[in-house]
């Protein structure tokens, strides 16, 4: 049922777009941004089940619509779907050559995430650091309230 509804939605979008460049004429509107944000990943992504993607590829005007927006607003991408774009990785197509800074970026992402989580834990009071006693045995550490009272 879900695939049937999605296919129907894509077909209706294709019919509404017709031969126009954008949904409301020659200039893009917020609807174009919304539709592109949903259709382009469906067109470009590798999916485990390609039924919906194949249906989208059969709707040539929606494919041209995505390609047009990609080439207009994302010129460095070339505006071509990944499946037909030549690989920049070289002959072996190694994943390491696609992004030479992959490990650095992953490490930085983990460190930023860790710092954000620790910052949240400290600021929200989930984790706190208390000073230990440095005086002779048997003395209790002075709390912040006691320090304020002494002043």
TrEMBL record:
What GO cellular-component annotations does this UniProt entry give? SAM complex
What does the UniProt keyword field contain?
Membrane, Transmembrane, Transmembrane helix
Where in this protein does the record put region Disordered?
Answer: 132-151
Annotated transmembrane regions? 107-129
Annotated ranges, domain Metaxin glutathione S-transferase? 6-69
GO biological process, alphabetically ordered:
mitochondrion organization
What PANTHER family does this protein's entry cite?
METAXIN RELATED, METAXIN-1
Name used for this protein in its record = MTX1 protein
Please report the organism this UniProt entry assigns to the protein: Hemiprocne comata
């Amino acid at each position: 049922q879900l695939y049937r509804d999605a296919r129907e939605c894509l077909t209706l979008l294709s019919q509404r777009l017709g031969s126009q460049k954008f949904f409301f004429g020659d200039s893009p509107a917020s609807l174009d941004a919304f539709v592109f944000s949903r259709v382009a990943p469906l067109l470009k992504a590798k999916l485990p089940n390609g039924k919906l993607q194949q249906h989208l590829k059969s709707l040539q005007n929606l494919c041209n619509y995505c390609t047009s927006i990609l080439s207009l607003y994302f010129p460095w991408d070339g505006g071509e779907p990944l499946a037909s774009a030549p690989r920049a990785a070289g002959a072996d197509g190694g994943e390491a050559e696609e992004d030479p800074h992959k490990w650095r970026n992953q490490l930085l992402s983990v460190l930023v995430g860790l710092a954000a989580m620790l910052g949240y834990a400290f600021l929200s009071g989930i984790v706190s650091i208390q000073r230990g006693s440095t005086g002779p045995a048997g003395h209790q550490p002075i709390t912040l309230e006691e320090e304020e009272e002494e002043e």
